[in-house]
Amino acid sequence: MDSQYFIGFFLLFINVALVSAEINGSVLKMKRGTSSVQFDPTRVTQLSRHPRAFIYEGFLSNEECDHLIVLAKDKLEKSMVVDNESGQSTESEVRTSSGMFLDIAQDKVVADIEERISIWTFLPVENGESLQILHYEYGQKYEPHFDYFYDKVNLELAGHRIATVLMYLSDVESGGETVFPNSEGKLSHSKDESWSDCAKRGYAVKPRKGDALLFFSLHPNATTDPSSLHGSCPVIRGEKWSATKWIHVQSFANSGSHTGDCVDENENCPAWAIAGECERNPIYMVGSEEYYGYCRKSCRVCS
Question: Where is the Fe2OG dioxygenase domain (predicted)?
């Protein structure tokens, strides 16, 4: 991990709640209160550097996959997309699946999955949106798109979506791949006839029940990454179930809570400012047109 990655991401994620951890063999156990969630880094493989993408084999158990489907099955509605101008949700033929959102920590299974995602991504639980469960039937798809925003409405809530965790809840007989048309590996990723024509347009990942795909929509310096363009290929045979967790740069749970007062939003801000982080990490500390800084008072940009 290079120094730029470490410094930038350390400050973005420093507001994660303190946890105690212990390592048994290759399995990392994170404890919060009486709950203990396991994470096995040996199951993670890096797929691409541009975009930064990783696959975790067996991230969810069969029972967890089935449980999420049961929670969603009777509550599905036509999937929506975000309008680039207004920031509002709207119907579009670009996205033809059906879906619904669970509540944050809706039950113990959902809460454990959210904790596991936080451990894997090093991003706070509170920065994540609710889990969205999606269902794709024959021919349904989601055209290539970005998970970061263009509109100020969503940017003002909690900043860009920095990362996406896409969990596959079912196997798909044919089609339904996740494809990255702009990935650096699209030419080197060899594919046989088991891949759909859509998947052959870029680096692609086949949906396998229990696996989870993590990719970052922002570079380590917090600028948007065009290589993160991605889509869901049409289902050719069978059906596809998936669960998506979008994670923001800032807390989504407290989005829209900024009062405009000159305050620090982290108790460590004064120490970071003395250490020179206002200059080294201005996006996190001071903010920009897209982000509200966490340490504006200590960096003396307001009064």
Answer: 127-249
Distance, in Å, from the CA atom of 58 to the CA atom of 211, rounded to the nearest integer, reads 5
The pTM of this model reads 0.74
Tell me phi and psi for residue 278, to 5 degrees. -60, -35
Angle between helices 62-72 and 108-121 (to 10 degrees): 120
Dist CA 24 CA 269 (whole Å): 34
Do residues 246 and 128 lie in contact, with contact meaning Cβ atoms separated by under 8 Å?
Answer: yes
**Per-residue exposure over 21-47, b if at least 16 CB sit within 10 Å of its own CB, e if not:** eeeeeeebebeeeeeebebeeeeeeeb
Domain extents for the chain?
40-248, 260-303
Beta bridge partners of 205: 178
- Give the largest Cα separation in the chain, rounded: 63
Q: What would the pLDDT profile of 166-213 be if each residue is shown by its tens digit?
A: 999 999 999 999 999 999 988 788 899 999 999 999 999 999 999 999
| C-beta separation of 120 from 163 below 8 A | no
List the one residue out of 67, 77, 76 whose CA is nearest residue 111: 67
Fold of 40-248: Jelly Rolls (2.60.120)
Q: Looking at residue 81, what DSSP letter applies?
A: E
How far apart (Å, rounded) are the C-alpha atoms in residues 163 and 166?
A: 10
- Note the pLDDT tens digit of each residue in 148-162: 877 666 666 667 889
Q: Are 219 and 249 in contact (CB under 8 A)?
A: no
Q: Are 149 and 161 spatial neighbours (Cβ–Cβ below 8 Å)?
A: yes
**What does DSSP assign to residue 211?**
-
For the stretch 81-90, contacts whose Cβ atoms lie closer than 8 Å and that sit 24 or more positions apart, written own/partner, are 81/145, 82/149, 82/151, 82/154, 83/151, 84/150, 84/151, 85/151, 86/151, 86/153, 87/149, 87/151, 87/152, 87/153, 87/154, 88/153
